[in-house]
Structure formats: structure tokens, C-alpha cells
Amino acid sequence: MGERDPVARAVTWFVVASLLVLVVVGVGGVLVLRRVGTDEAMRQAEDTAVVAARAVQERLTDRMVTSGSFVDLQPLDALVTAGVLQDPIDAVSLRTRSGRVVYSNEPDEIGTEESLSGPETSTLAGAGTTVTEISTAGNQPSLEVSLPVFTPDGMALLFQAQLRFDSVAASGRELWTAFIPVLAVTLVALAALEIPLAVRLARRVRDSQRERAQLLQHAIEASDVERRRIASELHDGLGQQLVGLSMTLSAEADAIEPEDAAAAGRLREAADRTRQQMRSLRSALMGIYPPTLERTGLAAALDDLAAVLRTQGVEVEVEMALPNGTDFSPSVDELLFRGAREAVQNITTHAGAHHASIEVSTSERKAVLRVVDDGVGLNPDRSAQASADGHLGLLMLDDLARSAGGSLTVGPAKEAGTSFVLEIPMSEPDR
């Protein structure tokens, strides 16, 4: 079964991530709006208490403070009862610096005395308005707003108004809940704008990947054509010349042997070396372009690659550890062979190995190529220098493996040397 469309997968992840972000932003926005609404309601409650204090100060006389008679306080009490004790204000009192209550809308409290707290003393001294949350009878919270007021003679009194907290809170809720629809519409509009953009971006990325894969495939095909051309020219040109030279040397050796046995021996030795070079050339041609891959299959082509290593004195084991009936597609065979060829090229050029193994197996619906040698091991500096010099075989193979949905891993082997692992899906992914 093929993989899901990468565009659909990318958009799905983006939508899920966007929804999570919207939820976080929405919750955070609601909390911020709630706090702002509560703060604004508190400020409005404070402003209400300040207006009430100014009204009380307008009605204050010095006799109200000094006489201690409720009769003298009746004009002030009438103002408080009729105009000040309105939602959210529940109670009003006036206290002197000593803490004596000179007026309260509760007559029983007039004349009682309790020392002022530190904040109350600071407020009376002109430090501004103080808002304190307190608990009243029945554990119903309320707010107490304190600020100074003055009699006509300049005596400072502490004005204190108690406001119902639930009323203040309700006012705050009205403020911040009014903005929730605006926040919701904004977030939904943002999501509606981002999702089409994400779809377009994902499609562009997919198209770019396809174009890149096509360019890489064209480059590889061009490389194959060039390898085939070079192999043909070497076989038909240099190869035939070496054959002719070997035959000529042997014939010359036979011709002069009766007269000059030493020279004939040297000619036969040269002929043997020529034939040895012919065998090396044939092994090199197998590495450049193996005709056995298309004609006889992957196993024979890997044996040809192993023969290249054996000519250099490297002991090689080739194993096709495949379940019965396993057959790869031509494209998978081709990619596995490319990987083996690149690994063998690395062994012949850099490894200095004495033993190597080439194994093809399957794992979780993937074809796996594993090439291990006991050479000098992976050298990051050397690999980086090779890439800088333009030897991009491994990089191109890695790109091709990724494009096919697979992976390439090159690293140190367990004991010594280098481990080269190429994994390719046995069926091509949907594109």
C-alpha cells in the first residue's frame, strides 16, 4: 500500500498544529481579557467611590465631626442614604486619625474607635486611593475603597466605602465577554487565511521535490549513458589493443626462442602482464557498466563487483539472504546495485581492506543492502574533502534513496572498518 499524499499529510499536520495554537492563543486571550475586564471594573469601582467621597465632602461640616450628635449628622446621612448607597456601594464611614468613627450609615458604629492600619494611615496622609479586598459576614467578599476627605476647616477624615464584589465582578465579566466574539472571529479568520497558504506552500514543496528528483534521475541516466559509452570505447579500443599486443608478444616470443631464449622469456613475461592488465580492465569495465544487471539479475552483477575487489586481493563474500519468491522491481535492483558499486568504489579507493561482505536482505517491506569492510574505517575529514573535490557519489545516492522513500547510512562498523547500509521500499511510494 502506498503512502499518503505528502501534501495532504503536511496540511493535516499544519491544521492540527494551527488548531492547537489557536486553542492556546484563544485560552490565553480569554484569560488576558478577563484580567483586563476585572482591572477595568476595579478602576470603575474606585472611580465610583471617589465620586461618592467628593459628594460627602461637599456636605461635611466641622460640627458634624465635633458634636458627636447623630442629629447633626442627619443631613449627611440623608445624602448617603439617598444618593451614595447605590449599587455597588453597600456601606460608607468616616474616621478620624485616631480611628474614631464619626459617621457610618450604620448608626451603632458611630463613636466606636479602632486604630488605623498602616495603609489607612498612609491614605489619610495623602498617599492616594487604597483598594482592599475584605470578607464580610457570610464570607461574601467585598471591596473597601479608602481615600481622604476634608472638612471646611481642613480636618482630614478617612472616607471608606464598601462595594459588593459580585457586582464589580459582574461588571468586569460584561466588559471582557463583549470582546470574546471579536477574538473568536479574528482567530477563525486567521486560520481560514493560513490553511490555503499552507496548501499552496505544501504543493510548491512537493512540486519542487518532484522536479529535483527528476533532475537527479536525468543526471543519473546521463551518467549511465556516459558509463556505457566509456565502457564500450575501452572494450573496443584499449581492450582489443591489449588482446592484439598479447598475441603479438607471444608470437614474437615463439619466433625468436630458438635463437634467443632469454629475450623470448622476457616477451612471454610481457605477454602475461598484458593479459593480466586485460583481466584488470575487464573487472574495471564491470564496475563502470555491468551488462549482467539487466541480462542475468542483481546477484550476478554483485558477483561482478566482488570480482573487482578480488583482483585487488580483497576476500569478498556475497550473500542474497532473501525469502523464497522475493523479486525486486528493476528500479530497486538498479538502486541497490548503484549502492553496492559506490561502496565497492570506496573500498578500492580508500579502505585498504582485506575482507568485505556484500549482503542483500529484506526488512519490513524494504530491500536492504549492507556492505561491510575491515579497512581503515570512516574518516569524516576525508569524506568532507571528497565532497569538496566534487566526488558526490554518496551525496547523489543519498538524495536518490530519499527520493525513493529510503535511506542511506554510512558509518563505522562494529569492530573495524566501514558499514554501508542502503534501505529502499520494495514498492514505490505514491507521488
Helices and strands in order, then pairings?
Blueprint: H1 6-59, H2 62-67, H3 70-84, E1 89-95, E2 101-104, H4 118-127, E3 130-135, E4 141-150, E5 156-164, H5 165-177, H6 180-256, H7 261-288, H8 292-295, H9 298-310, E6 315-321, H10 330-351, E7 355-362, E8 366-373, H11 380-388, H12 393-403, E9 407-412, E10 418-425
Parallel strand pairs: 6-7
Antiparallel strand pairs: 1-2, 1-5, 3-4, 4-5, 7-8, 8-10, 9-10
Helix pairs in contact: 1-3, 1-5, 1-6, 6-7, 6-12, 7-9, 9-10, 10-12
Description:
The chain is built from twelve helices and ten strands. The chain has helices at 6-59, 62-67, 70-84, 118-127, 165-177, 180-256, 261-288, 292-295, 298-310, 330-351, 380-388, 393-403, and strands at residues 89-95, 101-104, 130-135, 141-150, 156-164, 315-321, 355-362, 366-373, 407-412, 418-425. The strands form two sheets. A five-stranded antiparallel β-sheet has the order 2-1-5-4-3. The chain has a five-stranded mixed β-sheet with strand order 6-7-8-10-9, with helices on one face. The model is unreliable at 382-391 (pLDDT under 50).
The average pLDDT score comes to 77
Order of helices and strands: HHHEEHEEEHHHHHEHEEHHEE
Fraction of residues in H or I helices? 55-70%
The total strand number stands at: 10
Largest sheet: 5 strands, antiparallel
Oligomer type? single chain
Query: DSSP strand (E) fraction?
Result: 15-25%
For the biggest β-sheet, the strand order reads 2-1-5-4-3
Compute the separation of the termini in Å. 13 Å
What is the approximate shape? rod-shaped
Rounded to the nearest angstrom, the radius of gyration is 47 Å
Low-confidence stretches: 382-391
Alpha-beta classification: alpha+beta
DSSP summary: helix tally: 12
